[in-house]
């Protein structure tokens, strides 16, 4: 049974082009009418990281350069 699970995982990993295609299609469909388009994913992640850094550096009384 463990061998079947590993074979299933291996079979899924071999289809990397399929996974890339599916991910790209989801991004295109989700941000079809957006002005920023797929770049909004990067921008929103960057805003999240900066805001979390500011909040936690303040919470733990750390200089943001060191956090």
TrEMBL record:
The chain crosses the membrane at residues 39-60. Keywords: Membrane, Transmembrane, Transmembrane helix. The keyword Transmembrane applies. This is ABC transporter permease. It comes from Salmonella enterica.
């Amino acid at each position: 049974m463990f061998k079947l699970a590993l074979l299933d995982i291996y079979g899924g990993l071999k289809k990397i082009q399929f996974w890339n295609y599916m991910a790209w299609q989801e991004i295109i469909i989700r941000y079809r009418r957006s002005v920023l388009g797929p770049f909004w994913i990067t921008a929103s992640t960057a805003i999240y990281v900066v805001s979390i850094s500011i909040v936690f550096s303040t919470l733990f009384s750390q200089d943001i350069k060191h956090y």
